[in-house]
Amino acid sequence: MRWQFHYPKRTSFYPPDYENPGLGGCEASLVLLTRALAARGHRVEVFNCCYRPGTYDGVTWRMTWELDSAPVPDIAVAVRFDEALWPTDSKAEQHLFWMLDDRTRGPAAFAETFRDRGGRVVLASQAMRQRLDAAKVAIPTHLISLPVETDRYTKPVENRAPICLFASMPNRGLDAALALWPRIRAAVPDAELWVTSGWQLWGFTNSESDDRWHQLLGGHALPDGVRLLGARPRAELIEIQQQAALTLYPCRFPEMFCLSAAESNAAGTPVITSPIDALTERVHHNRTGILIDGDIDHPETQHAFAHAAIDLLTHHDRRNAMGRSGRAGAFGLAPDRIAAAWEALTGQVADPFVAVNSTLSE
Q1: Under 8 Å between Cβ of 35 and 28
Q2: For the whole model, what pTM was predicted?
Q3: In what order do the strands lie in the sheet with 141-143?
Q4: From CA 130, how far away is CA 277, in angstroms rounded?
């Protein structure tokens, strides 16, 4: 079956960027899902601002303007934005909209054109469904999680050093993590806070990212025990996620899935975060991590974050149990399972012959 994905955001990337320097959550999910569908025997094309068009892992990546002359697909997937919609006279057998953030404009526009033609919206979380309900967007929706390469997380959860990890975009709460960090460091003197991520994931150059870091930190020195690692290649990031004892993520951002929390689960790393939107779906309180209520800029909330982190850093058995529980729950996010869920939604069964030969050719 021919699948076409249209992602017209004017940020140029191509699949190898997933490994280095890394990609944002939406772009990374697009790479992983399409690759998994191709591995299952489907013909998959992605139309985006691809600066090196070509075929990668069985997926053909093409420039977005080529969509106008491309063959009619069996499945047309508009990704994230209303600009991604197929024209009203599209002859595709099925139309889907893949909602990847909290914006409802795209699904609303999609509903106007394709609701009466069997169009459906694929959501990554219940938080997205709540957004659509609040905006009164009436269209069938289906919940399918975003993919995580769970098979790359193999390190044991036990015997980890007292490393806390902040692995989300810096503007989503890093300032609060830095503000509360001295309390943790005072109670656990050998604890360290490792900060990954950076604006390279959004297509910024290293120099532009450095400028953003300078603006964010204001030229001030980092607190004792804080290491700014920045955007790391995927293989290094996975190692870092598996070295950490816990993920510390005071958050003020409307997370609609939160891949960093999902990856922490896969790594067996408990997450301490805020109960905002889909974070309540990624983190099960006192089972895979801890949810801390309150404004992350308020001293009492920061004290609660610090207390929770100190407790997990000093009570290894409890932390290890949370890590094992998080890892067990993450197995369902494997890309092949997520691709199978998309197949089930569309009724498009993989071609075993193509899938087997694709595997043999790797």
Answers
A1: no
A2: 0.94
A3: 54-56, 59-63, 43-48, 2-6, 75-79, 94-98, 120-123, 141-143
A4: 9
